[in-house]
Amino acid sequence: MRNVAIIMLVAALSFTLWRLGDVERQRYAALVGLCPGTITAVEPICLSTAEPRESALWNIYYGLMP
User: What is the span of the domain harbouring residue 12?
Assistant: First the structure.
């Protein structure tokens, strides 16, 4: 039972970090202007395909650090 709880917590943490990386990638793309007009209008297609950093790990790092 304890192992199942650990696996569930690791899965939840992994999913949360993955989503945090996506949100940070979209925030950074809007901030530096990779998708023109995203400050005033929502561009979900552009924001979902923008790759402002080299790795998803950098997105997670910048999402966690203040």
Answer: 2-64
Whole-Å CA distances, 18 to 1, 7, 33, 38, 43: 26, 16, 23, 22, 21
Average pLDDT per consecutive 10 residues, the chain (66 residues; last block may be shorter) = 95 94 84 71 73 80 81
- Look at the chain and report how many structural domains it folds into: 1
Nearest-Å Rg of the Cα atoms of the chain is: 15
**pLDDT tens-digit readout, 28-39:** 888 887 877 656
In DSSP notation, 7-41 reads HHHHHHHHHHHHHHHHHHHHHHHHHHTSSTTTTTS
Read off the pTM.
0.71
**CB-CB neighbours of 57 under 10 Å:** 11
